[in-house]
């Protein structure tokens, strides 16, 4: 059973650029969510996808967008990067959406630095 | 809006001691509560998942309790070891509308076990 894998592990971008982060869910999981973790803080919920549709979103602007593919892999896209977007971005997968009874499995994250 | 608070923010103790980490949340309408461990610069490792209908879960030297009505959870670590040094995060999964929300995290407890 493979876990959640994220790529790339580290990334440096310039302010104003666009970035795409990728995630492969754990085998058998059909829900994926993304989190942003600033230094010294707990992760903040960005959004969640179930069956390729966004069905939950935290307090993040529209320049944060995503996709979930039929194989349950996912992308996080951030446009018009700002310095405050520098953070560890974590992807997490879970088995179901509506039951809520299953825990999340997290990937190792992508460290994004915006300069 | 759900808020999660973890106390203490940091803890340093000698090896062998038994520890209690505290987590409180403001909205008792939750699906479950999950405790994670995070090593510096790494992703999250799930330790224990407690469903809203459960009172506690145990795994090895770890025991987590949940009192949903009072909005509290504790993580008990028995016979602490230097390898337990990490940041411990508490997260709750709430629900709104017809399904589950993403996780709401506390800021974590930074734990150091002195050899």
Q: Which short descriptors sum up this protein?
A:
heterodimer; A: 115 residues; mainly beta; seven-stranded mixed beta sheet; four-stranded antiparallel beta sheet; 11 strands; B: 115 residues; five-stranded antiparallel beta sheet
Oligomer category: heterodimer
Largest interface: A-B, 33 and 28 residues
How many E strands of chain B? 11
Rg of chain A, rounded, reads 13 Å
Which residue ranges of chain B are poorly predicted, with pLDDT under 50 across at least 5 consecutive positions? none
Strand portion of chain A, in percent? over 45%
Helix content of chain A: under 10%
- What is the H/E order of chain A? EEEEEEEEEEE
From the helix content, strand content and strand pairing of chain B, which structural class follows? Answer: mainly beta
Structural class of chain A: mainly beta
Alpha-carbon distance between the two ends of chain B: 41 Å
Mean pLDDT of chain A: 91
Q: Counting H and I runs of at least 4 residues, what is the number of helices of chain B?
A: 0
Please report the number of helical segments of chain A: 0
Distance N to C terminus of chain A = 38 Å
Summarize the amount of helix of chain B as a percent range.
under 10%
Give the overall shape of chain B. globular
Which geometry of chain A do the CA atoms define? globular
Q: Which segments of chain A are poorly predicted (pLDDT under 50) over 5 or more consecutive residues? A: none
Order of helices and strands of chain B: EEEEEEEEEEE
Give your account of this protein's structure.
The complex is a heterodimer of chains A (115) and B (115). The mean pLDDT of chain A is 91. By secondary structure, chain A is mainly beta. In chain A, strands 2, 4, 5, 6, 9, 10 and 11 form a seven-stranded mixed β-sheet that branches. Chain A has a four-stranded antiparallel β-sheet with strand order 1-3-8-7, with no helix packed on it. Chain A is built from no helices and eleven strands. Chain A is globular. Chain B has 115 residues and is mainly β. Chain B has no helices and eleven strands. Chain B has strands at 4-7, 10-14, 19-25, 30-38, 44-51, 56-59, 62-67, 72-77, 86-96, 99-105, 109-114. In chain B, the strands form two sheets. In chain B, strands 2, 4, 5, 9, 10 and 11 form a six-stranded mixed β-sheet that branches. In chain B, a hairpin with a 5-residue loop joins strand 4 and strand 5 (44-51). The radius of gyration of chain B is 14 Å and the shape is globular. The A-B interface holds A 6, 33, 35, 40-48, 50, 55-56, 58, 88, 90, 92, 97-109, 111 and B 4, 31-32, 34, 36, 41-46, 49, 51, 89, 91, 93, 95, 98-108.
């Amino acid at each position: 059973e493979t876990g959640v894998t994220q790529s790339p592990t580290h990334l440096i971008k310039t302010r104003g650029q666009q970035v795409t982060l990728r995630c492969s869910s754990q085998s058998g999981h059909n829900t994926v969510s993304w989190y942003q973790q600033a230094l010294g803080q707990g992760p903040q919920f960005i959004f969640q996808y179930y069956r390729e549709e966004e069905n939950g979103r935290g307090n993040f602007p529209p320049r944060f967008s995503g996709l979930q593919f039929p194989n349950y892999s996912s992308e996080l896209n951030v446009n018009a990067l700002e310095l405050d977007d520098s953070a560890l971005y974590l992807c997490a997968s879970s088995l179901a959406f509506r039951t809520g009874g299953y825990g999340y499995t997290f990937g190792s994250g992508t460290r994004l630095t915006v300069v | 809006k759900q808020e999660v608070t973890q106390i203490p923010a940091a803890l340093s103790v000698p090896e062998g001691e038994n520890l209690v980490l505290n987590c409180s949340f403001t909205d008792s309408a939750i699906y479950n509560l999950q405790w994670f461990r995070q090593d510096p610069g790494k992703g999250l490792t799930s330790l224990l998942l407690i469903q809203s209908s459960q009172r506690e879960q145990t795994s090895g030297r770890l025991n987590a309790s949940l009192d949903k009505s009072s909005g509290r959870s504790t993580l008990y670590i028995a016979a602490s070891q230097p390898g337990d040094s990490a940041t411990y995060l508490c997260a709750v999964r709430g629900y709104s509308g017809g399904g589950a929300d993403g996780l709401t995290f506390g800021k974590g407890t930074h734990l150091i076990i002195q050899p």
